[in-house]
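Quick question, first post here. What does this chain look like in 3D?
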Amino acid sequence: MHLKDPGRIKVFIKDPNKKNYLRIIKEVIVLWITKKELPMYYFKHLYKKEIKNYREYLGRAEIARIHKSKKLHKPEYTSILRNKLNFSLYCERNAIKTPRLISHNFGSTFFSSNISREISNLRELVNFYKNVFESNPVEAIFFRPLALNGGSGCFKLARDSFSQQLEKEYENLMDGDFTHTETIQQHHRINEMYSKSINTLRILTHFDKGNVGIISSLMRVGVGGNIVDNASSGGLFVGIDQKSGTLKRKA
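> Answer (accepted):
Ran it through. Tokens below.
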């Protein structure tokens, strides 16, 4: 949660399942002192009544140290996983099923079908994507910035309105580096939950002495018109019961 995230703040304020404010203040102060950081992550779910072991959760600084640990994460592997373009190309070359990479750009230089083109104005950009849509049987293209995560900076271009959308995204696109992938269709039952984003499963695993174990699993769901399901962009997540394989009752 971030102070500039009004959606998440509204969820916290309206949640009838939160602890009383005096207890919340006390727990935030305890975390502030012990974690040596303002614990904004507390307001994602630690404020809820059923959470008793709030001190056992990792703070953002602790998570960052784990992510940066070369003992836990080899740079030669993480460079593939963290860079969206590298990951798309790796999956493509190893026949791993992921949304197809249609094009990408580094600033004003755009790449599609092994051809690069320098774009200098909006008209050229519109023509570029006119050709892309004519060459690819897709109804929309999903854009993800290479330098950001958590769903930040993502947007879609639809076949029937891409020229108008490019007017809004022109500066953003020309100043950034993006992957451009095909959009995919999710199961109609998942669409009934929320249809504007692809709602995904996240399974947390550990690898110990050659054995893979599942720590927990959850389903992420977009909300409020967002096209991404990331919690850091306002999305929700619902735990999955490990025994029954069904969603838990509360997000």
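The chain has three domains: 1-71, 78-182, 190-251.
The longest strand covers residues 211-221.
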